[in-house]
Amino acid sequence: MARRAKSKKCLKIFALIYATQHGALKVYKGINLASLCESMPENTNPYEAAVEQLEAVEKILGLDPSLTIRLKHPRRVIIVSVPVRMDNGEIKVFTGYRIQHCHARGPFKGGIRYHPKVDIDEVKALAMWMTWKCAVVDIPYGGAKGGVAVDTKQLSKNEIERLTRRYTAMLFDDIGPFKDVPAPDMYTDAQTMAWIMDTYSQLKGYIVPEVVTGKPIELGGSEGRREATGRGAAICAREAAKRMGLKMKDLTVVVQGFGNVGQWAAAVLEEMGCKIVGLSDSTCGIYDPKGFNVRAVMEHKEKTGKLRGFSHGEEITNEELLQLECDILVPAAMENVITEANANKIRAKIISEGANGPSTPKAREILHQQGVHVIPDILANAGGVTVSYFEWLQNLHREHWSESVVNQKLENYLVKAYHDVVKTAEEYKVDLATGAYILAVKRVIDAQERLGLFP
Ligand code: NAD
Fold this sequence. Notes:
The protein is α/β, with parallel strands linked by helices.
């Protein structure tokens, strides 16, 4: 009972981290923050919530707080004022951050986001979250996150380039292939990474592709990176099906969100033999019990920019889509789509969380009680950071791996991670989300203890 109560509290705290990860904190504060944790005051900020999350795991594991105290403080917090000359000659100053949480397991790794609501507590929480995410899939990185408080929609491409280059120059001493390797996040992309790589390389005096991941292929980006997150969600779902004694060729799949993650999750699950019966984007849902040809739907989406108008299937709402009878449901659109209000209407056997935080903690609890196998986002969408790790390895070795090599390696990492998480959850009699955090915290503490404390 005590363990269950602890894991319940854990899940509530995780929700705040998920919301933060997706920039949804404000919404979360309104809807769910008060119920996140009995002991959590209303005004709890995301970093305090991240620390509470760690403390919840600490209690489940019965750890001495001296083992976790260092993890409750980011190793380094960097704040820079980034001056940028605007196209009209005016100079504006933007606040930029880079938080390096822990590097016991390897160089810091984490995205850089450009968003007007970026603030230090959010970035600190996300950096800690990256430490756990890298540890779950057992890649040799620590966690970091960066961001600039800016609304890129108000800037020209040239202004964004100057902002990126100046921000990079100001972080020059703190990032690097063996120190801290940034990647894209909200409102940053492969072009942003190319500018960071070029700026860093200009200051070094030679080309350093391994300083960032998520680059264009021409600059050392990895094959398979675009598909990696969706592929990872599909691999995890397949492993869950195997464990439940289900055959992929007999299974039906519903995917919410037909963007990067959702399209590739659907395409890979179709390749694995499943029938894709439901798909959706922000315009509508489509349902065909006979199954869709995912490539044809992708072509339609590419051509028209939306799912609406696809030649086959019945048009349904997103709410109806989530409640379709199916074996595998992949929520791959946004956070908080499965809530207390609709969790008991979900008729899937397996949920593979492609998006960040698609289920609220209360929904997770209901689903767990209903016997639905929920693969948490920290594991189900870790395919992206795993292939980022492969990109870094290829760059360091000046190699370019084929897509099949990348996919095989991704498969190996995720299959192992899935089974490691299941084993941990069984050992502690908790759900998979709590199991994933327990596994991550244990791995990081083990590394930290082996290294010891200098001097
Ligand atoms: P994307 O913008 O490419 O796709 C999002 C899709 O969701 C779009 O098709 C959009 O139309 C659809 N959508 C938006 N609102 C919707 C709604 N209310 N109902 C149904 N569909 C809706 O984004 P993405 O990169 O695929 O990311 C999706 C999720 O996965 C996000 O939560 C993101 O944080 C998470 N994620 C992505 C990656 C990655 O590598 N891309 C990695 C980890 C996590």
